[in-house]
Amino acid sequence: MPNARFIPRRPLWGPSLVGFALAGLWTGPAAGFESEVRTRVAAQFYGLSGPFGDRDILRRRYTHTLSLGLYELAGGERPGQPRLDARVRLRLDGDLGQSGAERNPETEDRFVPELREAPIDLMYGYVEGRNYLGGALGFRLGRQYVTDALGWWSFDGGLVQVTTPLYFRLVGYGGFEQRGGLPLLSTDRFEADGVYRGERFGLEPTQYPEYLDQDELAPAYGFGIESSGIPLVHASLGYRRVINRDVVATVPFVDDSGRIATFGDNRTSTERIGSTARVEHADVGSVGGSTVYDIFVQKLSQYDANVDWYATPWLTVGAGYEYYLPTFDADSIWNWFSHNGMSTAEGRVSARFTRRTDAALTGGVRFYATDGDPSDFPSTENPVPADAANQRSADRVFDHFGTVAGNYRWGDGSVGLRAMGEKGGRGHRGGGDVTLVKLFDDERYDSKVIVSVYDWSDGLRPDRDATSFSYVLGGGVSPRTLFSQVRFGAEWEHTTNRLVGQRYRVLATLAIEVSK
Amino acid sequence: MNAERGAAVLLVACVAAVAVALAGTTERAHAEEATAQAPDKTVGAPLVHGLAPMPGGAPVPQAYRPPGSYAGDRGPSHVIFPAQKLTIRFNHKRHVRELGMSCVTCHDQAKTSRKSSDSLLPPAKRCDGCHLTDHRDLDAVTGAPGELIAQCRFCHVGYQPEHGNRVARQVVPKPNLRFNHAVHAARNIACQQCHGTVQNLELATRDQLPRMRRCLDCHDKPEAARGEAKSACTTCHLSEADGVMKTSFATGRLEPPSWLRNAGHDADWLERHKRVAADDSQLCANCHHEDECVDCHDGRVRPRNVHPNDWISMHAVAARQNNPSCTSCHQIQSFCVSCHQRVGVTLSGPTSNLAGRGQFHPPKSEWTDPPRTRSHHAWEAQRNLNACVSCHVERDCAVCHATAAVGGRGGRIGGSIGQGSNPHPAGFRARCRTALRKNARPCLVCHDPQDSKLAECR
After folding, report:
1. pLDDT, mean of residues A77-94
2. What is the pLDDT of residues B67-98, one digit of tens each?
3. C-beta atoms of A57 and B342 within 8 A
4. A residues 158-197 lying closer than 8 A (beta carbon) to B
5. Interchain pair A123, B293: CB under 8 A
6. 8 Å CB contact between B447 and B404
7. Is A17 part of any domain?
8. Residue A386 has pLDDT above 50, yes or no
9. A23 FRET partner, CA 20 to 30 A, in A345, A476, B365, B375?
């Protein structure tokens, strides 16, 4: 149903480019503190087609990032001194290949929710203090990342870290999760998965009801404790909770009155506890592992254990086990569809034969076991017939895999090999790349050649298999006369296989880094 | 008899000749050590000592090497301590053990130097007192005539008389790190504690430079016991303006050794790095900007070392085989679904993209009808839900799995009997109460608020 209120978004190309350009020219004062500006532009031109071959997507992508760093705003010239830094990074992510109809909900037969032509996001922007109170206190304020046992995450707020003399460090933080759809230059990259959501501006309630509205900030907080300075051992424990506050659709079907039911209580989005531990002796090896417990799902969603033996100073032999159960935002129905996770067991050998040559070999098995019996909610409207007991018989699915990687480096170049193979009930993949990099004229010019051959088949779609051959030719030049570091680069990629015929991709890049 | 006498004389002569020859060899071998007492009788004899750490280039016993070194470690980092070119023949063992000199006799600034860029090699004129030379004017160096130890070639390797005043240049580059000898000396840390027993060696080479493993004996102690030996990497390593370690040098790229937190950037580091980052992200932050993380984990240009060429053709198989890897960079309900809707492989999405499309999943008889074999969608969903979620929105699942009361399988709308197929895993009943209390929204997607099943969880 056409929505008269819909006003197409105006592209932000003009002001964005001007703003980025002006900001890029500013390099800060020459004294008092250090400043650094990095800007990177990537233009990509390529096409995609669906497996049915008749839906081509033209990608005409322009990505522009701009980073600004201000360092030693309040001392910190020497290691260990208190220091105050500020960092910010913006990104313009444009795709001129989209059609306007794809972004206009009035053209229902073409409209795709969440598609935006040139969004700008503030990837991070924060002020950071370190080594205050004799090295005991550190903090961050602003949009920032957290990396811990719970994964890679971003929020807007504050973080405080206290290092005690008692072999442990405390971390506490609070703020709002970075989410797409909010008017804060955000992306949805860091929110929990399983929920299709964003700004529903211009959409009728009955249009894409499963595309949930996101217009409320999502409070988040967490804390952690981490060992500090204990010989041979490192361990950490972290907790994080995020809260959903939006009024969202529940049943994705209209009710008798033609409306969509909604739900709007404050509720858990994610709530997890993660831990890691590692014991290491430099002459012997390392034993470590991690766990993630999803408090909402009430299951261990991830755990792993690994052992590495430093057999010789240049040879490491190891083994590992990893379990992964997909879990989602608590708004998602899919937390209650996952049964058992996937397990991966692997062995590895890694060798650094010389300073120039290294290689690694891994091999293992990935397996899944059904849980066999039906759940203890045996039926709803249509109970499982008694004679169909085998419908949930216990069984296992195995995949076998292996990888080989190696590098040889010399003064102004390198050659690398990455090859892999995986085979199982869901198909097979096998092949590898050889990458050659060569620098010329004291690194003023660089070149790259990649040649790949892969053979693959889709186990669930017998008609989908191919052998792909690809190559990449790339090069760059780094003139050093204008700025501290500048590089212009270009790459040409050509792929061919029986399903897609010929496919091409062009990538042009410009990177500038200025420090004062 | 004469023959026997003759043979005996010949034998004695031979033995004597051998003895004299051996004595002569020994004498020549130690000529430079004896010249302090002997006159110049061996000019032209080969100078064999002080050209290598051990006589004849023999391997250096491990006990003589710096603490923290190990057999086969190929010496200290070539990035930190660039290659040297030593053109001086010098016998430390002779000077220290036999002549009684100490380290600071020659390296007089070793206990007061505060910067690693200080050259602690003794100036040539330091040798003049004993070697009867005069290096005050390096353009006109002189030596006592007739004294071997005063000859240029005695110390300067490869020197020939026709070279005049020119000798080969010695190259000892500045190390790429911070180091304050004075602080360490003030804490009574002896030279040997970092450099090994140089007094047992002839020539001291790069191999006698310190090893980080030894540094960490003090600099990686518990905070309370650490004292002034700070543990920050930049205590010793050079840093960039933003405080992270400088890792790119003309001599190469600085990477952690395997034994340091198991963080060796070996050929399979790409696959392993998540374990180290999850356990100790601050370790990574010592060297890496967050830009390096987001360029891959939130990037917009396909990293070729992660997704090889023609990845787009293979990605569906890869996602089904190993979906945990996908979610480390991709938000599947936005990144994946949006693109899949645009190319028409989804059940939802623009209707113009759905027309005339082929069969994506196996036939209905395998994919949705009983019995549940390995090709059944239930198996795939239970095993690998991320792959389902990369194309399907929850409405697609609710059509069958929701109860009729809320419209499942047509429900209220079409008036048909709802399917209500139960997707819950074993043991769900024990967990549903807590889940419902924390977030009831997913329950209400499939269940009517008055559903008796919901009431069991309240």
Report:
1. 88
2. 999 887 889 999 999 999 999 999 999 999 99
3. yes
4. 163-167, 180, 187-189, 191, 193-197
5. no
6. no
7. yes
8. no
9. A476
With beta carbons under 8 A apart, name residues in chain A contacting B321. Answer: 366, 399, 401, 422, 424, 426-427, 429
**Nearest one of A283, A352, A347, A354 to A317, comparing CA atoms:** A347
A8 in any annotated domain: yes
What pLDDT does residue A230 have? 84
> Please, what is the end-to-end C-alpha distance for chain A in angstroms?
56
Question: Do residues B35 and B130 lie in contact, with contact meaning Cβ atoms separated by under 8 Å?
Answer: no
Residues in A closer than 8 angstroms to B392, CB to CB, are none
In the numeric block, the tokens 């209390």 are attached to B437
Nearest CA in chain B to A393: B372
How high is the ipTM of this complex? Answer: 0.88
Mean pLDDT of chain A: 87
Average pLDDT score over residue span A428-432:
95
Q: What is the pLDDT of residue B121?
A: 93
Nearest in space to B256 (alpha carbons), one of A232, A309, A352: A352
Task: Assign B325 a pLDDT band (cuts: 50, 70, 90).
Answer: confident
Using a CB–CB cutoff of 8 Å, tell me whether A19 touches chain B: no
pLDDT in tens, B375-390: 788 888 887 889 899 9
Domain boundary among A103, A135, A167: A135
Residue B59 at interface with chain A, using a CB cutoff of 8 Å: no
CB contact under 8 A, A231 and B260: no
| Alpha-carbon gap, residue B394 to A2, rounded angstroms | 24
Q: Does A395 touch chain B (CB under 8 A)?
A: yes
Residues 6+ apart with CB under 8 A from A171: A159, A160, A161, A162, A223, A224, A225, A226, A238
**Which residue(s) pair with A131 in the sheet?**
none
Find the CB nearest A48 among B277, B312, B327.
B312
State how far the Cα of B407 lies from the Cα of A272, in Å rounded to an integer.
33
Question: Cα dihedral sign for A133, A137, A143, A147?
Answer: positive
Cβ separation B394–A196 shorter than 8 A: yes
Is B278's Cβ below 8 Å from some Cβ in A?
yes
Residue ranges of the domains in chain B?
55-68+75-215, 323-349+361-457
**C-beta atoms of B406 and A336 within 8 A:** no
Check: CB of residue A269 under 8 Å from CB of residue A329.
yes
Nearest CA in chain A to B217: A231
C-beta atoms of B361 and A339 within 8 A: no
Mean per-residue pLDDT, B106-111: 93
Strand partners, A174: A158, A221
Mark which of A71, A106, A135 sits at the end of a domain. A135
d(CA A222, CA A224): 7
**Does residue B430 carry a pLDDT above 80?**
yes
Residue A152, domain member (yes or no): no
CB of A246 less than 8 A from some CB of B: no
Query: Residue range A340-366: average pLDDT?
Result: 94
In chain A, % of residues over pLDDT 70? 87
Among the partner-chain residues B271, B321, B404, the one whose CB lies closest to the CB of A422 is B321
Range of the domain at A513: 404-516
Q: Is the pLDDT of residue A309 over 80?
A: yes
A vs B: CB pairs below 8 A: 490
Q: Band of the pLDDT at A75, cuts 50, 70, 90?
A: low
Give the C-alpha separation, B137 to B146, whole Å.
21
Average pLDDT over residues A312-339: 93
Q: Which of A35-44, A143-152, B360-369 has the lowest mean pLDDT?
A: B360-369
Give a yes or no: residue A481 inside a domain: yes
User: Tens digits of per-residue pLDDT, A277-302?
Assistant: 999 998 899 999 999 999 999 999 99
Which residues in B lie closer than 8 A to residue A503 (C-beta atoms)?
310, 312
Number of domains chain A contains: 2
Helix (H) or strand (E) holding B185: helix B181-186
Q: Which of A212, A195, A85, A88 is nearest to A138 (CA)?
A: A85
Look at B279 and A236 and tell me if their CB atoms are within 8 Å: yes
